[in-house]
Amino acid sequence: MKRIYLDYASTTPADPEVIREMLPYFSGIYGNPSSVHAFGREARKVVDSVREKVARFIGAKPHEIVFTSGGTESDNTAVKGITYAARGQGDHIITSSIEHRAVLNPAGFLERQGFPVTRVPVDSTGMVDPDAVLKAITPKTILISIMHANNEIGTMQPLAEIGAIAHERGIPFHTDAVQTFGHIPFNVDELKVDLLSASAHKLYGPKGVGIMYIRSGTKIGRFMHGGAQEKGRRASTHNVPGIAGLGKAIEIAERDMQSEMRTLTAFQDKLISNIVGSIKRTKLNGHPEKRLPGNVNISFRNVQGERLLKSLDEAGIACSTGSACNASNTGPSHVLTAIGLPLDLISGSLRITLGKYVKEEEIDCVLDILPRLVRKMSSFVEYPE
Ligand code: PLP
Fold it and tell me: Which residue is closest in CA terms to ligand 1's atom 9?
């Protein structure tokens, strides 16, 4: 059976060019970049050059880039590092109700230690109102953390407006850009952010490598204690093959991003209009326009998401659901709950996320199979309208 992968927001396959780039750094150029000898210097060269590449890519300076193990570590570092560094000056954290768990859970951890947290609500499209952020600010606010695009529903947030509010008051502003880095062009000055998290495995790079942008002058505590790597900001030996792979992934993104955005938007539009047109009583979740190219999140009435996911999987199609039980969730999606979706629509939700290896015939195949599966399933259960 030919399998179709439509879960790119979860992870992406590494590009063969990325893998080729990484290979020499496993056994040929294997020195520790912190060593002073020639082996170390050789490895340091790639770490330094990728640092410059990342910085150029987002309009930052090389010393503002720190390599981490992924999006989760970068998010944790931002939330905990800023909060601990600000002890004595304030204690209040503002974030949104639809952040990834990599932000919500460290915020919750800090809350249990006595740091008050405000989770700003979103509207029915998943949008944060900058005015609500403004109203949540107190003299004790020490961090605002709002994601760039949501991983479940793809809604893009008005970061520049929120950043302007934060900057006027001298409050550090962090964004989780794990879903947008390498997929849509942006620049840290335009977004008005002081800290930014990203992860290589979402842009056809390797798993286990992330970056964190920290604007010069931002006071942040150490999160990983140990050696003096990354100018003392993040201990542990660099993942040199991973960093080399990230560098290649960025080079490819610079080259292909615009055409990928166009193709994914066209496929996204085709999926949404055909699904909504051919299946009765569906609901598109997320913002109708301000959404990440390639994100399709739709709820079907009278359908159980897990059953639909299983049937699609049996047909060779891999997607995800915000319904009660899936591999990473133990309850209904907090994002779909936050946008006010009733439980039956949360239960019947399906997320399709596209990437550069998706072909048009695969979209057509989904459009052939999905309506038939939904019709078959919804004929079993009837909920009141
Ligand atoms: N933030 C967002 C928005 C994500 O989608 C993810 C991954 O799904 C993460 C953070 C965590 O990134 P990583 O898997 O690199 O730890």
Answer: 71
Q: What is the pTM of this model?
A: 0.96
Decide whether any atom of ligand 1 lies within 6 Å of the 178 Cβ.
yes
Choosing from 7, 10, 72 the residue with most ligand 1 atoms within 8 A of its CB, the one to mutate for a pocket test is 72
- Out of 77, 79, 183, 199, mutate this one to test ligand 1's pocket (max ligand atoms within 8 Å of CB): namely 199
Q: How far apart are CA 62 and CA 5, in angstroms?
A: 35
Q: Which residues contact 262 (CB under 8 A, 6 or more apart)?
A: none
Ligand 1 centroid to Cα of residue 42, in Å, is: 31
The domain boundary residue, chosen from 231, 252, 273: 252
Residues annotated as catalytic (active site), given as ranges = 325
Q: Is 72 in the pocket of ligand 1 (CB under 6 A)?
A: yes
Q: Name the residue with higher pLDDT: 223 or 17.
A: 17
Say how many domains are in the chain: 2
Main-chain phi, psi angles of 354, to 5 degrees: -105, 160
Distance, CA of 351 to CA of 318 (rounded, Å):
10
CA gap 94, 134 in Å, rounded: 10
The boundaries of the domain holding residue 318 are 4-12+257-377
Residues constituting the chain: 385
With beta carbons less than 8 A apart as the criterion, state whether 74 and 198 touch: yes
Same domain, 277 and 234: no
pLDDT in tens, 26-39: 999 999 999 999 99
